[in-house]
Design brief:
Number of strands: 33
Largest sheet: 9 strands, antiparallel
Helix content: under 10%
CATH architecture of the largest domain: Sandwich
Radius of gyration: 24 Å
CATH topology of the largest domain: Jelly Rolls
CATH superfamily of the largest domain: Galactose-binding domain-like
Length: 435
């Protein structure tokens, strides 16, 4: 009998080892210990013993620097790296809370390259379109100039030097644009950017730098706007500083701070753009504009060096008319599981999407949210694009009663974690398009 028990135990151990043997990441590009150019092509597959499967994958060029994430068990992307040697890591996260990694050591050789931070490839934008890009070259004399082609053979903009930041008016439709650099040795490099320009949209640019922002603490258990709380706390503390030069993309960023002694308390920043209490001189007193608007794009860059201290970062937009309220809420749950939730306004609750949200520390994160109000007054969540990765939702929820309000507003919110750890986020190039 004792021998029989040992045999069963051995079988169970073998099964346990076999079940865990399938978890792993296989990287087919780049090869380990290879030498590559500044644009590095990654191809990888992941498997897991978790019955629910692989949730997402990501790439770390160096510890704590997550530059890319994608849902599912495979990735195929190109990232830009400066010359040097990197012990890069490709990681998979499964739906049981586990993870596995593969390290790929690469040496990046210097060379010509164009890095475009705005607009994101394959994104939908309003016109004019804001282009932000930088260039590098292995030419000893450096970069001579940069330019933008809005179509093959159509050079719409040029500027001297190795960076550009400009806005171009483009007609509605899909444009296969190209950003190019020319060096002083006769060489050149390009980066293609395909965009879809929406129809009749109008855009508010750099909203983070305008007046009209209001802020409120929101504390447990009700999380209603606290009219008696002050930025000095002690329960919730917060601060706002506009016109920050660094870190900044435009030279006009806004710094947001949160802290305090009350765990899991939040701070909401809100600005009324159109309609009642408009900060943009658009009161719509005759109520002829707000009810006609159906399509909205929230486009923003954010930066932090301690984003792991956040319970969540929230990006919302709102529309009110004819006694109806529409809140398109998007919450990146950082401390809450690195997943996007969207707000079900009719039932007053967050709905998980299954879409991963891993914002990068110490670098600018680019977020684009696209939503719509349907013909039967439902809230439609169309897509979330974070750092060039687009996830299509196409989810609809009902509206809620909002008597007496007419307007369109935007929100930005920071949530405190289980010990209300203080943290800071910089927001730049917050643009809002409506049509």
């Amino acid at each position: 009998m004792k021998k029989h028990v040992l045999t069963i135990t051995a079988i169970l151990v073998f099964i346990a080892v076999a079940n865990t043997a399938f978890a792993g990441v296989t990287v087919s590009s780049p090869s380990n210990n290879s030498t590559v150019g500044t644009s590095v092509h990654y191809i990888a597959q992941a498997s897991t013993s978790c019955p629910e499967g692989v949730a997402s994958m990501g790439i770390y060029p160096s510890p704590n620097w997550l530059v890319y994430t994608v849902g599912g068990s495979s990735l195929n992307t190109t990232i830009n790296l400066n010359p040097g040697t990197y012990n890069t890591v490709v990681e998979e996260w499964d739906k049981c809370g586990g993870a596995s990694t593969t390290t790929v050591r690469i040496t990046v050789q210097g060379g010509a390259g164009v890095h475009v931070t705005s607009p994101a490839n394959n994104s939908t934008v309003g016109s004019p379109v804001n282009y932000v890009a930088t260039a590098t070259t292995n030419c000893p004399q450096g970069v001579s100039s940069m330019g933008i082609y809005t179509a093959p053979g159509q050079l719409a903009y040029t500027v001297n030097g190795s960076s550009l930041n400009t806005s171009l008016s483009l007609s509605p439709g899909t444009h296969n644009t190209v950003v190019q650099e020319w060096d002083k040795c006769g060489g050149a490099a390009t980066t293609p950017i395909t965009i879809t320009v929406s129809g009749n949209g109008k855009t508010f640019y750099n909203i983070q730098s305008i007046g009209g922002w209001h802020s409120y603490a929101q504390q447990p258990p009700s999380y209603q706007d606290c009219n008696t709380c002050t930025p000095a706390g002690p329960g919730t503390t917060w601060a706002t500083y506009q016109h920050i030069k660094s870190p900044s993309l435009s030279g006009n960023a806004t710094q947001y701070n949160i802290g305090g002694t009350m765990d899991y308390s939040d701070v909401l920043w809100n600005n009324h753009l159109i309609g009642d209490f408009s900060s943009e001189g658009m009161p719509d007193s005759g109520h002829t504009l707000v009810p006609t608007l159906t399509t909205f794009t929230y486009d923003v860059y954010f930066w932090g060096n301690n984003l792991g201290a956040s319970q969540a970062l929230e990006f919302d937009l709102n529309q009110f008319f004819n006694g109806m309220g529409f809140t398109w809420g998007h919450e990146c749950r950082v401390g809450g599981g690195n997943e996007w939730d969207v707000w079900d306004a009719a039932n007053y609750k967050w709905r998980p999407t299954g879409i991963p949200c891993y914002p990068n520390n110490n670098s600018w994160n680019h977020l684009t949210l696209q939503v719509q109000r349907t013909s039967n007054n439902q809230l439609l969540y169309k897509s979330i694009t974070l750092n060039g990765q687009t996830h299509v939702l196409n989810r609809t929820y009902g509206h809620f009663p909002a008597p007496g309000w007419y307007g369109v507003t935007v929100n930005y919110q920071m949530d405190g974690n289980y010990k209300q750890s203080p943290y800071t986020v910089y927001v730049d190039q917050l643009n809002f398009t409506y049509e």
